[in-house]
Write the structure tokens for this entry.
Amino acid sequence: MSNQDVRIGIVTVSDRASRGEYEDLGGPAIREWLEKALTTPWQAVARVVPDEQDQVEAALRALCDEEGCCLVVTTGGTGPAPRDITPEATEAVCEKILDGFGEQMRAVSLKFVPTAILSRQIAGIRGRSLLINLPGKPSAIADCLDAVFPAVPYCIDLIEGPYLETDEAVIKAFRPKHARKPQA
Amino acid sequence: MSNQDVRIGIVTVSDRASRGEYEDLGGPAIREWLEKALTTPWQAVARVVPDEQDQVEAALRALCDEEGCCLVVTTGGTGPAPRDITPEATEAVCEKILDGFGEQMRAVSLKFVPTAILSRQIAGIRGRSLLINLPGKPSAIADCLDAVFPAVPYCIDLIEGPYLETDEAVIKAFRPKHARKPQA
Amino acid sequence: MSNQDVRIGIVTVSDRASRGEYEDLGGPAIREWLEKALTTPWQAVARVVPDEQDQVEAALRALCDEEGCCLVVTTGGTGPAPRDITPEATEAVCEKILDGFGEQMRAVSLKFVPTAILSRQIAGIRGRSLLINLPGKPSAIADCLDAVFPAVPYCIDLIEGPYLETDEAVIKAFRPKHARKPQA
């Protein structure tokens, strides 16, 4: 796959943002973080959906299967409240769940707030796409991306996606030696 | 919901305690810890049940749905042995599982014993109730409650339960600013 | 059960190793680690199987149910790639999953590489057998066994398996006092 075709889905899950009652802050925070971190050219595909499991599932499936996103990141809907269904929707569309992402995001968030244990964020694989749930709060988004993104490019290699490169001053991605491409 | 109505379920899961062959130490240890920690008036609803999944499930359902407990805490039955079925019963009655509780309880218990990884404790949500599995051993109960309770009052807020307050000298509960009630 | 009968299954999950295109390094690394760690006499039962879920399941079932292994350890097939199905096969044959093993192995591996969060290693119980997934890389195998093995002998006690003893200079197994046998 040519790196010109790199597409990343950004899904804001929020009843209020989807009705326009609330400015979407999570989606733009993810986009800004990725713009700083990635040196590989990429294109954002953004969606804002309400906290309805079927609509979140449909958005995730479309971004993976139709839009060809190698990475799909969500914000919002991961807490214990009745309307929080982002992890359920993510799990329903994934073939594999990667428990290490949720563990690591909670471990990092716990350094800031003890309520980090209430977060049900997961990550998983659907075909050639990696899906990651992030929190709703913009500052927590950056903490979580800082924590897990070093493993993201190699994960996408393993599912046969594009070779993503990062600005090492922002985030240092890790690949085992045999998986590294020679520098241009 | 008026805080006069705060009810907390305490379930001891033990074949021997349920037959009266063994003094229940876990249930009273939980009660004692909560009496020290909570300044909000509350009422304990205690049950002792054998390690039978259907009986544990029935007790959990009754405490949530009939007794109106906003919090239900169990002790015992979370290990790898054939009769240990408390997590299975808890998962069966919950709509959402909060993996961060088990992770955090194991991480804290690991500081004391390497066998903490054998614990299968979970937490989850059923309607307006938070369910938490604790270990059977009284000293480990306090370690686990110390570790996770700071997140419990805000979790109960999020599922529309009563506003619980703690004695900060014992346990400092955390709520984001927007969720804090003005002091009386 | 007499300790003369202690059998431990070692399963290498690898398409290439199963076709003889690649030397199995993971299986021998596990065996070497266990030979150093265990003072109880034991017998290895080794299998090399391709990354096919039904074949991995069949091997695990045979080692537990026919070969009478109290412990079955796998190497390989735990990543996010499409052919990685060892955790799925393990979960399918287990009655109980012990999340603490995967958490602890990832936490330890994270000290070495940020891609540790991509590992989906699990552990679980089938009847009187403990099953543990290890990574494919020999150096990571030792790191993971160092991290979780202190809890393995007591876990096997709890599922009514043989009383395993370790060389404390290599690995210090932990049992609560009431579970310790008097020294010979």
Notes: The mean pLDDT of chain B is 95. The CA atoms of residues 23 and 133 of chain B lie 19 Å apart. Chain B is about 35% helix and 15% strand.
